[in-house]
Amino acid sequence: MSQTYRPHDVMSLLNSDGKAHPRENGLALATAVLGLLAVITAIFPSLHLISSWAGLAGFLTGGYAQFVSQTTGERFIAVIGLGCAGLGLALGIAHGGLWGGM
After folding, report:
1. Cβ atoms within 10 A of the Cβ of 34, count?
2. What are the C-alpha distances in Å from 63 to residues 12, 16, 46, 82?
3. % residues pLDDT > 90 (the chain)
4. Within 13 Å and on the Cβ side, how many CA atoms surround 27?
5. Secondary structure (3-state) at 65
6. Helix or strand or coil: residue 71?
7. Which residues contact 48 (CB under 8 A, 6 or more apart)?
8. What keywords appear on the UniProt entry (predicted)?
9. Distance CA 39, CA 85 (A)
10. How much is the average pLDDT of 68-95?
């Protein structure tokens, strides 16, 4: 029956095709968490090591998440995380870089 009610939660938004994608969902959510960490720590110049490394890890994780994603929800979360990770990486590098030089 096509009009069956299904409760919506986060995983049902990511699995819009009705199938479970635990690896892809995990990668998308990890990208979002790393991107959020990178952006928040980029606000403080003294935390440039955390910001730049979290941004780099989020950028690499997000790239792979985009490569293997299967639904629009996964791609949406991965793109938001990629943007945040890229911003955090750029600001972290501007504040001192990956190895604390300057």
Report:
1. 25
2. 23, 21, 27, 8
3. 71
4. 22
5. helix
6. coil
7. 42, 91, 92, 93, 95, 96, 97, 100
8. Membrane, Transmembrane, Transmembrane helix
9. 7
10. 94
In our burial notation (b when 16+ CB lie closer than 10 A, e otherwise), range 42-80 reads: beeeebbbbbbbbbbbbbebbeebbeebbbebbbebbbb
Amino acid at 28: A
**Burial of residue 18, with CB atoms counted within 10 A of its CB: 0-12 exposed, 13-18 middle, 19 or more buried:** exposed
pTM reported for the whole predicted model: 0.85
Alpha carbons within 13 A on the beta-carbon side of 88: 32
Question: Of 81, 63, 72, whose CA–CA distance to 13 is shortest?
Answer: 72
Task: Give the CA dihedral 92, 95, 98, 102, nearest 10 degrees.
Answer: 170
